[in-house]
Design brief:
The protein starts with a helix and ends with a helix. It is α/β, with parallel strands linked by helices. It is built from 13 helices and eight strands. A hairpin with a 6-residue loop joins strand 4 and strand 5. The protein has a six-stranded parallel beta sheet with strand order 3-2-1-6-7-8, sandwiched between helices. Strands 4-5 form a two-stranded antiparallel ribbon. The protein folds into two domains: about 190 residues, TPP-binding domain (Rossmann fold), CATH 3.40.50; about 60 residues, no CATH class. Helix 7 runs parallel beside helix 12 and helix 10 packs across helix 13. Bound molecules: zinc ion. Zinc ion (ZN) binds next to loops.
Length: about 290
């Protein structure tokens, strides 16, 4: 391990409350396009005649439902189930030794939940929680993938609503305020696979007052210099190195007790913060929709 890695390892070992934010690099490395698939924007516009920002909207879901689901099935989901990613498994295994209390992500693939990571907040919702707008029954990503053209509720025969936030919709206020509360409480803020100019990250980092902002990403990006510690390269290999060393130096943690409901009762101050975040987010999504 080099000097920075050693320093970061000691910080991780000694932190009482680590907040992890996982960004879009992680799913892109696994070949998943994400909701807007910015990296293939030209191909999408060429093939569909519309941009992804126009397609992933309530307007298309209600008025051009075939079109919407074609995009959902082929661009967002892809042909095959991604399975459990090694990066997600490493975070789960690190959680056995160090105090990773929360893992927040704007990725919609339930990558961390599926690996068995505790306390995941999927801020934009997930492709595993599609639901019937009539009876509320939930359907996973494989159900959507397997139904050519439009996936319907088996009981009500109405098209499903996706479990993730559409362009122009507001992020679930409960989820973002929960993530803000956790970011505010943590002593170490670890970012894995994200630009530090990412909108969701920028919304969360405003509430972090510590001096341990750590970044692990595949390559350097503009704006990274706000991090106190930075490591670049193969994310999976970097995490593996931490996992190998930390697991040989620390005993396993006791299984964290599930948080009491009372802890999430909002104080007047945090409610204000959540309101601000919500407003900022509305502005952001409106902005995206306009483009
Ligand atoms: Zn139904």
């Amino acid at each position: 391990m080099n000097v920075v890695e050693n320093k970061v390892k000691e910080i991780l070992k000694n932190s009482k409350n680590i907040f992890v934010y996982c960004g879009t690099t992680v799913h892109k490395l696994a070949g998943l396009n994400g909701v807007l698939a910015e990296h293939i924007a030209y191909e999408i516009e060429d093939y569909y005649g519309y941009s992804s920002e126009e397609i992933v909207t309530d307007n298309f879901l209600t008025r051009r439902v075939k079109f919407f689901f074609d995009y959902y099935q082929n661009i967002i989901l892809g042909k095959t189930d991604p399975g459990v990613l090694p990066i997600a498994e490493e975070i789960r295994d690190l959680q056995k030794y160090i105090n990773i209390e929360t893992v927040a992500t704007d990725t919609i693939y339930s990558l961390y939940e599926r690996a068995g990571v505790d306390n995941v907040i999927s801020i934009n919702g997930t492709v595993e929680n599609n639901y019937c707008p009539n009876c509320g029954k939930q359907y996973d990503a494989n159900y959507v993938r397997a139904h050519r053209i439009i996936p319907h509720c088996e009981k009500c025969q109405v098209p499903l609503r996706p479990g993730f936030t559409l362009v122009g919709e507001t992020i679930d206020n409960g989820l973002i305020s929960k993530a803000i509360n956790e970011a505010e409480k943590c002593d170490t803020f670890l970012v894995i696979g994200s630009s530090l100019r990412d909108k969701v990250f920028k919304n969360l980092i405003k509430y972090y007052e510590g001096e341990n902002l750590i970044l692990i990403n595949d390559k350097e990006m503009f704006g990274d210099d706000i991090a106190n510690y930075r490591m670049y390269g193969d994310i999976e290999a970097i995490l593996k190195k931490f996992l190998d060393e930390i697991s040989s130096e620390l005993p396993m943690r006791e299984k964290p007790v599930k948080k009491e409901k009372t802890e999430t009762v909002e104080t007047a101050e945090t409610t204000d913060a959540a309101d601000t975040a919500d407003t900022a987010d509305k502005a952001d999504t409106a902005d995206t929709a306009d483009k």
